[in-house]
Amino acid sequence: MFDFPKGSVVVFDKGYNDYTWHDSLADKGIFFVARIRGNAVYDVIKAHAIRKNSGIISDETIQYSSKTNIKRGLKPVRKVVYRDAETDREFTFITNHFRWSANTIAAIYKQRWQVELFFKWIKQNLKIKSFIGTSMNAVITQIMVALCVCLILAWMKFIFSIKQSAMHILRLLQLNLFVSRGLLELLKPPEPRLQNSPQLRLAL
């Protein structure tokens, strides 16, 4: 499915909860941190000590015990239950790393959400609908160019006190790509023009 170098740490959600795949990662020397399925059947082999007021509710070594998984001969995994103080939500993680602290396991998965938020921001703000190339270099280059454009616009908004939103400025640029006008001039609202009507001439 994927080819990771030895020693990598892979973080994924329940969508990739294939226990056989987890086992193959361990065989290759690859560590993983994931959410456990709600219907997982397992036996607790060992309960590990936890620190008070750390947010960790339990830290255990488990063995999947359904008939199918017993036949597969899966290796034991570690199950960490963590309560997030900010959201008061409870999360259950599984991993094949037994040396890290339970808080480190929870922190690693929490960083995954930062990646999710980053890609959500990219989709909402950079408007990258498709990639020109599919290689790592092509994707990174396109994202970096889009990020540079956003940073330049944010800098201009701050320096010149531009009230328009970044998206409004981008639309103006798209509509005026071939117009020979300065950007600041483009963003200034049009000055009101006095109408030179016959009635005004009569009044004078």
Question: Main traits of this protein?
Answer:
2 domains; 204 residues; single chain; 6 strands; Transposase Inhibitor Protein From Tn5, Chain A, domain 1; alpha+beta; 6-stranded mixed β-sheet
Structure write-up:
The chain has 204 residues and is of the alpha+beta class. 42% of the residues lie in helices and 19% in strands. It has 7 helices and 6 strands. The protein has helices spanning 19-27, 67-72, 102-126, 136-159, 166-175, 183-187, 198-203, and strands at residues 9-12, 31-35, 42-47, 56-64, 77-84, 89-95. A 6-stranded mixed beta sheet has the order 1-2-6-5-4-3, sandwiched between helices.
CATH topology title of the largest domain? Transposase Inhibitor Protein From Tn5, Chain A, domain 1
The end-to-end span amounts to 84 Å
Total helix count?
7
Strand order of the largest sheet: 1-2-6-5-4-3
CATH secondary-structure class of the largest domain: Alpha Beta
- CATH homologous superfamily designation of the largest domain: Transposase Inhibitor Protein From Tn5, Chain A, domain 1
Give the averaged pLDDT, no decimals: 83
DSSP helix fraction: 40-55%
Write the layout of secondary structure elements.
Blueprint: E1 9-12, H1 19-27, E2 31-35, E3 42-47, E4 56-64, H2 67-72, E5 77-84, E6 89-95, H3 102-126, H4 136-159, H5 166-175, H6 183-187, H7 198-203
Parallel strand pairs: 1-2
Antiparallel strand pairs: 2-6, 3-4, 4-5, 5-6
Short description:
The chain is an alpha+beta fold and 204 residues long. 42% of the residues lie in helices and 19% in strands. The chain folds into 2 domains: 9-115, Alpha-Beta Complex (Transposase Inhibitor Protein From Tn5, Chain A, domain 1); 127-186, no CATH class.
